[in-house]
Design goal:
This protein is an alpha+beta fold and 429 residues long. The chain has helices at 54-59, 110-115, 117-120, 124-145, 185-195, 231-252, 254-259, 265-268, 279-289, 301-308, 363-372, 381-388, 401-409; strands at residues 2-3, 15-28, 31-37, 42-48, 68-77, 85-96, 150-151, 157-158, 170-173, 176-180, 197-205, 218-227, 276-278, 315-318, 341-346, 351-358, 394-400. The chain has 2 domains: 5-96, OB fold (Dihydrolipoamide Acetyltransferase, E2P); 117-417, BirA Bifunctional Protein, domain 2, CATH 3.30.930. The protein has 13 helices and 17 strands. β5 and β6 (85-96) form a beta hairpin. It binds 4-amino-1,4-dioxobutan-2-aminium adenosine-5'-monophosphate and magnesium ion.
Length: 429
């Protein structure tokens, strides 16, 4: 019977067939070891001369890294073996050869590895990161689905900007101009009025002409939006959400985080509530260590690191100056010039993972803001309707999935947190 390595525990003492790829192999006299990788795990297969098929013992010499093989043998519990089980192997069949596999255990440069991303993903650490990502994605859906949110995914082709016009990807929509979505938020504001608590979860696009550790051109964002919530309700939802996804990953991805050599002590402290700082307090903190910072500006990555280094949990910064935030942010009626916005900065210097806030709900103010931002009113008619027909207080946020995965995995560069990264200057493979 053919089984997966992850299911070996159910077959102890039985003869099974495993299919997989050669991860490693070595011989010493009368005994040969094959480390087999099948995507669900890695298993050691042991061939003893005299106990196994003689052809298998001889065939071993033809093995090469990443050849596709079938192993037949008896499952044994073996605590010292990776995964806890071992195969006392009898037969070996080569099903797909692999000649000169380009990725060897030696160090390769990032460009080489990215060019070979389709193969690189087979290696232990990359495999672990993508598994953590998959678990976090499930946790994201479980969190919102379990709290009465309705999934209302936003379109990817859009007629208008959401997050400023400088990072828009332009494309054609038949004879019209269109843009790839930078954020589903505006659409979530519409569905929030139809369903109350909503979220969308999909790819978003930013034409950022810069190479940083934290920016992708195409990234996944989950964006909840809640009718009647204000800025403070929004931060409460965000902190419960982040606690949930981080603790789920720590609990259920222990194996993967070990492969990544992630010390999880800092992650276990990610329990709500999180500290909250007014922009002015954060700016003061930054100025002490970075005198070049200009009060009123948005934060750069080093500024965020200064703020987050003061806390052992993620920290909210709220009330950014309206001037550095998008047109839809509500200005605080009690604090002219400051918006009811909030960013969440991850701990350990990982920086912003969430951006959001309370939305402008006055028709007149929104029209003025759209004009001030030099956006085309016509494209926003539908959005303005939401303020014409039963305008309502509402708030929401967006979490960048890859930023969250980088942080949880303790990875320095965001490019490893998505199966096929799109970076400035890279659209391959
Ligand atoms: O702060 P941002 O731009 O906020 C929005 O797009 C809002 N419309 C979301 C909302 O309120 N519904 O982006 C939100 C998050 C950031 O905090 C970051 O985690 C991630 O999206 N992000 C990126 N991740 C990777 N690469 C990029 N280029 C990113 N830009 C933003
Ligand atoms: Mg932001």
């Amino acid at each position: 019977m053919r089984v997966y390595i992850s299911d070996l525990k159910d077959h102890v003492g039985k003869t099974v067939a495993l299919k997989g790829w050669v991860y490693n192999h070595r011989s010493s006299g009368k005994i040969k070891f094959l480390l087999l990788r099948d995507g669900t795990g890695i298993c050691q297969c042991v061939y003893f001369r005299g106990e196994c098929d003689e052809a298998a013992f001889e065939g071993f010499e033809k093995l090469s890294q990443e050849a596709h093989v079938q192993v037949t043998g008896v499952v044994k519990a073996e605590p010292r073996s990776p995964g806890g089980y071992e195969i006392s192997a009898q037969q070996l069949e080569i099903l797909g050869t692999s000649v000169d596999y380009p990725i060897s255990p030696k160090e390769h440069g990032p460009d080489f590895l990215l060019n070979n991303r389709h193969l690189w993903m087979r290696s232990k650490k990359q495999h672990a990161v993508i598994r953590v990502r998959a678990r976090i994605v499930k946790a994201i859906r479980d969190f919102f689905d379990g709290r009465g949110f309705t999934l209302t995914d936003a379109p990817i082709f859009t007629p208008n900007a959401c997050e400023g016009t400088s990072t828009l990807f332009q494309t054609k929509y038949f004879d019209e101009q269109a843009f790839l979505s930078q954020s589903g938020q505006l659409y979530m504001e519409a569905t929030a009025a139809a369903f109350g608590k909503v979220y969308c979860f999909g790819p978003t696009f930013r034409a950022e002409k810069s190479k940083t550790r934290r920016h992708l051109i195409e990234f996944w964002m989950v964006e909840p939006e809640v009718a009647f919530n204000d800025l403070y309700d929004n931060m409460e939802l965000a902190e419960q959400f982040v606690e949930y996804i981080v603790q789920t990953a720590v609990r259920e991805c222990a194996e993967e985080l070990k492969v990544l050599e992630r010390n999880t002590d800092a992650l276990t402290k990610v329990i709500a509530p999180f500290p909250r700082l007014h922009y002015k307090e954060a700016a003061e903190m930054i100025l002490k260590e970075n005198p070049a910072f200009i009060n009123g500006d948005d934060f750069g990555a080093p500024d965020e690191a200064i703020v987050s280094s003061k806390f052992d949990k993620p920290v909210f910064v709220h009330h950014f100056p309206s001037a550095v935030k998008a047109f839809y942010m509500k200005e605080d009626p009690n604090e002219a010039g400051y918006s009811m916005s909030c960013d969440l900065l991850a701990s350990e210097g990982y920086g912003e993972i969430i951006g959001g806030g309370q939305r402008e709900d006055s028709y007149e103010t929104l029209v003025r803001k759209i004009e001030e931002h030099k956006l085309n009113l016509k494209d926003f008619e539908w959005y303005l309707d939401l303020r014409k027909y039963g305008t309502f207080q509402h708030a929401g946020f967006g979490l960048g999935v890859e930023r969250a995965v980088s942080w949880v995995c303790g990875i320095q560069h965001i490019r490893e947190t998505i199966p096929f990264p799109r970076l400035y200057g890279r659209n391959y493979p």
